[in-house]
Amino acid sequence: MMKYLQKLGKSLMLPVACLPVCGILMGIGYILAPAAMAGEVAGFTAGGFAYTLGLFMIKAGGALIDNMAWLFAIGVAIGMSDDNDGTAALAGLVAMLLFQNLLSSGVVSALTGKEAAAAFGKINNQFIGILAGIIGAVCYNKFKNTKLPDALSFFSGKRAVAIVTALVSLVFTGILFFVWPVLYGALVAVGEAISGLGPIGVGIYTFLNRLLIPVGLHHALNSVFWFDVAGINDLGNFWGNTGTFGQTGMYMTGFFPFMMLGLPAACLAMYHTAKDNKKKMVFGLLASAAFCSFFTGVTEPIEFSFMFLAPGLYLVHALLAGITAAITVALPVRLGFSFSGGAIDAVLSSFLPLAENPWLIIPIAVVVGIIYYVVFRFVITKFNLKTPGREDDDLEAEKKVTLANDDFTTVAKIVLEGLGGKENVKSLDNCITRLRLEIKDYTKVDDKKIKSAGVAGVIRPSKTSVQVIVGTKVQFVADEMKKLL
């Protein structure tokens, strides 16, 4: 089950990767047309070239944000299929079309003869999109090689997938007709319970978000608050300017301080507490990871560098993140992101109408950075934690250590050797920062050998699964490994 959920989490990254484009388009759009349809603002006049161009870019970004459910249906179907074939995407689209039409308020009212429940007015959401994608992928995986009698041979193989998907989707439509209103109510209750706690609820959410990073299931939690699954839709409302000023953005604002300066400061603490003879060795890893976290909000290269070496320290980090988020949203500041809480999104989203006192993020982040540095340095030295550069000396391993570099072929070869060779690898895939592999014999996996390639870390979710934390250049390493395999 865990393996399946992890694969789902990876699949979700494909449609989520569309969000940075929305952020760039809408961020620039709101710079050109700050009030977006509010007449003359900051020297820009409605109908003028700058305003028109800005509004055009805002609407272009909104075209993706407003249809994320469809992107999820297609992206998940591709990601969950065995060979990432486009036929699976078509199947996911078929399922989504049936759900959207048969469960719409108008059709439900016509079928029942009475007003449809409020839940059916919210059927265009990421949860339904994910479900459609899963159905499409499962049908593809099971029926892509179907052989029918000669009279029906035209519909054999991949042509049978869409037909089967439609039939399966009809069954799920009937189930959702009864289940969706109940499930929707439960999701709304969870969202309202946390949102009703104000800053404390935000702190709890952020704490749980960090705790789920190791298993890659934080995306499931995020979908409840960032998208329109439980009626919160913090991300969509912020970028679509359909939320409430001073409230919308509260489930995103708290990420900026610890992503921009908190975790980079933790990197500095880990560097300062590293053994003198290993500081040069860990500098490349920590510096590049800190840079990535500050600018893009991608924190996995940092977190995976110590979460398994010092799990207690990772718990401290999760607590600090939760406290940071709670205090940040308690202040009169609101900011949002299209991808993650880095400097790029901070600048782009600061021009949006629902951004409140975005400049406060900088002083807050500075204070958070100082706290992270002090706490990390104290905890590491007090409990002698084995963070990067503080591991027990192993001269043979040190001789083979190669700092992270752009020689992706060499990195791929070292990682593959550490995995026990290509004969020990059953399958290879990757998400935004990780190589995800299925192996035959876990005893042949050499963690130290893999780490000597300069990667951020190695985790083993099960005896047949290995994940190698590479960072944002993982696609290049994965491409080279596929050639070697």
UniProtKB/TrEMBL annotation:
It is a multi-pass membrane protein. Its main location: membrane. The active site is at C431 (phosphocysteine intermediate). The chain crosses the membrane at residues 12-33, 53-78, 90-111, 123-140, 160-180, 186-208, 220-239, 251-269, 281-298, 304-328, 335-354, 360-380. PROSITE patterns: PTS_EIIB_TYPE_1, PTS_EIIB_TYPE_1_CYS, PTS_EIIC_TYPE_1. Pfam families: PTS_EIIB (PF00367), PTS_EIIC (PF02378). Residues 1-392 form the PTS EIIC type-1 domain. GO terms for cellular component: organelle inner membrane; plasma membrane. GO terms for biological process: N-acetylglucosamine transport; phosphoenolpyruvate-dependent sugar phosphotransferase system. InterPro entries: Glu_permease_IIB, PTrfase_EIIB_Cys, PTS_EIIC, PTS_EIIC_1, PTS_Glucose_EIICBA, PTS_IIB_1, PTS_IIBC_nag. Residues 409-485 form the PTS EIIB type-1 domain. One of its GO terms (molecular function) is N-acetylglucosamine transmembrane transporter activity. Keywords: Cell membrane, Kinase, Membrane, Phosphotransferase system, Sugar transport, Transferase, Transmembrane, Transmembrane helix, Transport. It is found in: Cell membrane. The keyword Transferase applies. This is PTS glucose transporter subunit IIBC. It comes from Eisenbergiella massiliensis.
